[in-house]
Design a protein that fits this description.
5-stranded antiparallel sheet; 13 strands; Jelly Rolls; 6-stranded antiparallel sheet; single chain; mainly beta
Amino acid sequence: MPGAGYGAHHHADVDVVAVVLAGSLAHNWGGRATLRAGDVGILRAGTGLVHDEVAGADGAHVLQTYLRTRSPGQEPGHRTVRWAAGLGRGWVDLGRPDARLWVARVQADETVAVPPGLRVVATRQRVWAGPLPTQGEGRVTGPATVCVWQLDRARPLWAVD
């Protein structure tokens, strides 16, 4: 819904990863960015920050995930990664060794091989999630956007709760 969002709220020691599937999302944390379809915003809350998020005039369809930081007490920061360029699929550099994100925009009637990990598949009608096999590859047929999370087995204990 255009203009919908979350007013000012606080985060600390967490990385907020937002994958914009459609529309746009205005993000303000003391700096400002407008994330558009095909962007991944990575907000490192670090020692703490207050931010807000508001859907643009074209609305927003966003998949957002929170990862606890590996290094508490760092300075806050934000960056945007454009993943939809070229083939519209591939790995997104999250800037951390313990988590990887693979994103693909799958066209109607197209089938793509998907790497192993926790899979989230989003269409305009629904979102569903589940694990993919650890050996070999799964396949997804579009239209859909697919996100696959790979979390390192050596991750901190908070990740296995």
